[in-house]
């Protein structure tokens, strides 16, 4: 029985759990290395100064960058699931290399290999889930998967805390090796889930794609034929319109669906994540509590674990807000919140008293809440949404590579910045967060509630901005009007599109 016999919401739940396992891996590495950098047994083995701590952390990001670029070059030819499997196996190899390290060189190689694996996995699994999820709950499902990312961080911090008193290298080898077990679990879940129907249609495997859609739209034994036919029509229309736009050179041209603009938007937005301050908070939570707030290693590790519990609880709010308020408004509100938090954090660290240290710790907790309500879920949802189908694998690979590249720069400089300029480090992130508000307002069209194919309409209509067009489409959909891609064309061009669609079907 295919896909464990799951249909409808059960199949969507299975896809969400499989995607969530991939993000558990992501979150686990976020959490595990931050706690180990200051672990006594880890320091006794490798003797890292602040510069080398940044290098050890950031080399994982370098590997992830190359993994994403490899994914973009492959362009989904092997399927979303196949590349994700390759990522989990590569990450497992990297985890084994790190856990068995006795030299710094082997540790660094293991970090790079594991990073390549995570880059391959994450850049494909998010596309896979987005392409399978129905448009009206796509944000909710991706946001729920990203709660698994926080669960991964939570597992890492509390596992480290549980073994932190061990006087041997087991205190750091076991937490690193555990990544391999998580990666194999993720691969096992992917094996029993379907391939993306949009990818299958793109590869002219229409029968397989239609079968997956039939299972997704079957609820309580009844097939929703209207939704099935509508989705198939939208997919074939999008493929027809984008059929002449498949090469890398087309990606940098101003084509009918504005591929270049959409890829640039996704790349900038992904870079925003690291410069919001989320990357240092994720990777250096224990380090920040020790070196900025002035806590002991054991208390810092304990508080880091509690922070991840709070992070997970706060992420449940995103399940509701990401569809209720939309991506764009969530970006603007939370960017304003993160700006204020970073300013207060900088001021409290500068005052440097016991009371200000408590307030600073509270600000880190508040920052995590704002971040998960806006940028954490929103960025991973928005990237695949805004990409045209033909360029989705290439574009999302590039966008995720921008995230890793920005994270590399931030991770490399944060330990040195905290050592040299102290509290002023957090003002840098406050300035970036402030700049994200006008960027979201002026350039990011709202995608909540729109199908992946309908989003093309926001960029096809050159008579208005994508932001205004998205608002018009959302109003039309609320009024019960049907939105189709060929509405963007008139006369001979509409006939040409219809001809392409009929041929594709």
CATH superfamily: MFS general substrate transporter like domains
What is the molecular shape?
Answer: globular
Mean pLDDT equals 84
Strand order of the largest sheet: 1-2
Sketch the major β-sheet: 2 strands, antiparallel
User: Could you say what the CATH topology is called?
Assistant: Growth Hormone, Chain: A
Radius of gyration: 23 Å
CATH class, named Mainly Alpha
Percentage of helical residues?
A: over 70%
Number of helical segments with 4 or more residues:
21
Q: Strand-and-helix sequence, N→C?
A: HHHHHHHHHEEHHHHHHHHHHHH
Q: Write down how many β-strands occur, each being a DSSP E stretch of 2 or more residues.
A: 2
Query: In CATH terms, what is the architecture?
Result: Up-down Bundle
Classification by helices and strands: mainly alpha
Uncertain parts = 489-505
Distance between the termini: 28 Å
Domain Major facilitator superfamily (MFS) profile: 15-448
Subcellular location: Membrane
Membrane topology: Multi-pass membrane protein
InterPro entries: MFS_dom, MFS_sugar_transport-like, MFS_Sugar_Transporters, MFS_trans_sf, Sugar/inositol_transpt
